[in-house]
Amino acid sequence: MPFQLSSALHTQPTPFYHYDLALLDRTLTALQQAAKPRNFQVHYALKANVNLPILERIKNQGLGADCVSGGEVQRALEAGFAPGHIVFAGVGKSDAEINLALAADIWCFNAESTAELAVLDALAGAQGRTARVALRVNPNVDAYTHPHITTGLAANKFGISLTDLPAVVAYLGSLPNLELVGLHAHIGSQITNLSVFAKLSERLNELQTALTDQGHHLPHLNVGGGLGVSYEHPDEQAIPDFEGYFSMFEKHLVRRPGQQVHVELGRAIVAQAGTLISRVLYVKQSQQTQFAILDAGMTELMRPALYGSYHHIQNLTSTGPEQLYDVVGPICESSDTFRKGVQLPQTQRGDLVAIRSVGAYGEVMSSGYNLREKAAAVYVGQ
Ligand code: LLP
After folding, report:
1. Which among 259, 360, 340, 372 has a CA at the least distance from the CA of 48?
2. 203 annotated to bind ligand
């Protein structure tokens, strides 16, 4: 079904984020149907969307929380995620953030350097606690995605390089307040070539064998997130290919007896449930180009300006013969362009426009640039 806006929302002040909780539920059901029989535990990556009604839904389906800041840990707790289902990752955790997570007794810290381990050990000791740690490795596997969201290559700032890992494991073993519980890897986001997860699995298998040979027992493996969605076909492919994703790991990842495997998905869970609704302020014809100027801009959806990313755009009001428009926002930057050369029915001032697949990395990356007001969030399908 193409996106439709209920008539009650036609008078809602624009721009606003429109979240379809019924689609979120269907997505979560499909996700758990693929994950549970294969014995994978899913942690939701809060960075994709932190709105409480969404988090509560996700928590109620039994997912854990993957957080990358003290603020996200706090938000996860506020949404009711059990501390034992919260992971804290990130290449630059501050002392205050670590202390907050230690005090909450979260399940595990994904640590990325010896410098971080030293701080974590000292802070855990000061609180009289033992911190559980999974070491994030940089597996040097290409995810074949946008360079800005590739994280698992040797050139990226993330993770511990494969050659350094044995020394880091030994160092961790010398620290009294840390307990090694597993390995973590995340190679990138918006991954559509699923074969990269086979490569990741093989790399993790090699690492596990090496660590087991050295006498380390790893009860826990976290293979990261990154499953992509179809920005081109948000209606036809509203539910991502969870079966394909999990079967890659099922086939290629060697599990030790009793070992727990976590994935931490963000985008695949929430992207398609969110739509940015905006109104056309002006249609402007320049010498070369016809512009549809919206009341939403890069302040509400930064992805096109930042990554040149595609979002499907629909005129919800006008029908009839199509014309070409550069769909732009009101912000004082030429990069404030949703897309150039969009085919839309002849568009007029006041038309409602839907920009699709913004549930992930849309609202969370919004800004107040140009002193813009924060756009509202509206929930349907409850
Ligand atoms: N785990 C780690 C360690 C991550 O860094 C990320 C995303 C995830 C999990 C979740 O990845 P997902 O399943 O959502 O792909 N702002 C960018 C995306 C940045 C992703 C950063 N890390 C965008 O708008 O495309």
Report:
1. 360
2. no
332 flagged as catalytic? yes
The closest-lying atom of ligand 1 relative to the alpha carbon of residue 184 is 3
* Token pair for 166: 């044995």
Q: Which of 1, 115, 155, 332 is catalytic?
A: 332
Question: Above 80 in pLDDT, residue 82?
Answer: yes
Predicted ipTM beyond 0.95? yes
What residue segments make up the domains of the chain, in order of their start?
A: 21-269, 272-380
Whole-angstrom distance, CA of residue 231 vs CA of residue 309:
9
Flag whether 267 is marked binding. yes
CA–centroid distance, residue 187 to ligand 1 (Å): 9
pLDDT in tens, 296-342: 999 999 999 999 999 999 999 999 899 999 999 999 999 999 999 99
Q: What is the CATH number of domain 21-269?
A: 3.20.20.10
Q: Which amino acid residue places its CA nearest to atom 24 of ligand 1?
A: 361
CATH number for region 272-380? 2.40.37.10
Spell out where 114-266 has E strands.
Answer: 131-138, 160-161, 178-184, 220-222, 260-265
The first and second tokens of residue 4, run together, are: 């439709």
Cite the DSSP H helix spans in 9-113: 21-35, 52-60, 70-78, 95-104
CB distance 140 to 107 below 8 Å = no
The answer to whether 185 and 137 are in contact (CB under 8 A) is yes
What is the per-residue pLDDT across 142-171, written as a single tens digit (0 to 9) for each?
888 787 767 767 777 888 998 899 999 999
Closest ligand 1 atom to residue 303 Cα is 24
Ligand 1 pocket: which of 267, 303, 355 to mutate (most atoms within 8 A of CB): 267
pLDDT-derived band at 135, boundaries 50, 70, 90 = very high
- The helix/strand/coil state of 35 is helix
